């Protein structure tokens, strides 16, 4: 029987491959959702130059690059300190590290979207300037730390209160994570890109700045006109209608339902079967 011929060593071997493959996959996924990925490419360029000068017999240039590389090992700890801290926090919270992006059930997502749409309508009609960030894959903890911790379910009334004129959180951003308002009054990085429309103010510059560094969705309500804009991946889309916002949010959570681990499982099955 096949059961009698089953080799537990083969099971351990495949288990070893799966663990290493999945760990590498999660590391690359985490790096992809942070600006550390660009820095890694820069480091690879430096090391490529090192090997190129070595095999090209350019001792002086090779020596310079080697000295720079030695200093870079020390600088990496300083440069990557925030990313390393968040990565260790993810390992500490084991469940979140191995959980899909935007975890949670569909009913909670629908309720959150309903309240968010209602809040954006209210803020737009009242011309209350607002900056609402929806976390996707990139961890926004460093920006949450600059604001006031809220940790409350998303509510249209609460969002309107946080952005009311006299509220201490009026000028900052609200960050939503997993259907909850995690923090308010948060400071966001401003973009260095020159904006063609001079009517766009600090809120729009902050929204674009965060979208250039992360994969978050950032909604901006203009205090002067009440126009709703969406910043995503470094691009700003103005005059967003309720239908367009609703469609984008539901598409976001549909994409999240396509768990990236499904692709991983398919690849593992192919490895075990000996397929490419």
The biggest beta sheet is recorded as: 7 strands, mixed
Counting helices, strands and paired strands, the structural category is: alpha+beta
Estimate the global geometry from the Cα principal axes.
Answer: globular
**CATH fold name of the largest domain, please?**
YojJ-like (1
- Give the CA-CA distance, first to last residue: 29 Å
User: Number of DSSP strands?
Assistant: 7
Beta-strand residue percentage: 5-15%
SSE topology sketch:
Elements: H1 8-32, H2 36-55, H3 59-79, H4 81-92, H5 94-97, H6 106-125, E1 130-134, H7 141-144, E2 148-153, H8 156-162, E3 173-177, E4 180-186, H9 202-213, E5 217-221, E6 228-232, E7 235-237, H10 242-257, H11 260-273
Parallel strand pairs: 1-3
Antiparallel strand pairs: 1-5, 2-4, 3-4, 5-6, 6-7
In a nutshell, what does this entry contain?
The protein has 11 helices and 7 strands. With 276 residues, the protein is of the alpha+beta class.
């Amino acid at each position: 029987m096949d059961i009698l011929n089953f080799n537990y060593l083969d099971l351990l071997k495949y288990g070893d491959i799966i663990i290493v493959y999945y760990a590498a996959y999660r590391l690359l996924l985490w790096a992809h959702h942070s600006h550390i990925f660009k820095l890694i490419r820069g480091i690879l360029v430096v090391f490529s130059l090192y090997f190129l000068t070595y095999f090209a017999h350019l001792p002086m240039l090779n020596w310079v690059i080697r000295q720079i590389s030695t200093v870079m090992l020390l600088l990496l700890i300083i440069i990557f300190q925030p990313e390393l801290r968040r990565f260790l926090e993810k390992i500490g919270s084991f469940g979140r590290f191995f959980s899909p992006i935007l975890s949670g059930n569909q009913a909670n997502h629908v309720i959150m979207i309903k309240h968010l749409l209602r809040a954006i309508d209210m803020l737009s009609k009242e011309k209350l300037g607002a900056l609402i960030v929806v976390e996707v894959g990139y961890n926004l903890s460093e920006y949450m730390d600059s604001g006031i911790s809220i940790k409350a379910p998303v509510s249209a009334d609460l969002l309107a209160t946080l952005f009311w004129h006299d509220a201490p959180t009026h000028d900052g951003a609200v960050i939503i994570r997993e259907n909850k308002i995690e923090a308010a009054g948060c400071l966001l990085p401003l973009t260095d890109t020159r904006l063609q429309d001079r009517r766009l103010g600090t809120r729009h510059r902050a929204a674009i700045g965060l979208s250039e560094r992360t994969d978050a969705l950032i909604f901006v309500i203009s205090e002067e006109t009440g126009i709703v804009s969406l910043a995503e991946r470094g691009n700003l889309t103005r005059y967003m209608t309720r239908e367009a916002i609703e469609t984008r949010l539901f598409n976001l959570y549909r994409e999240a339902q396509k768990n990236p681990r499904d692709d991983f499982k398919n690849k593992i099955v192919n490895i075990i079967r000996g397929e490419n």
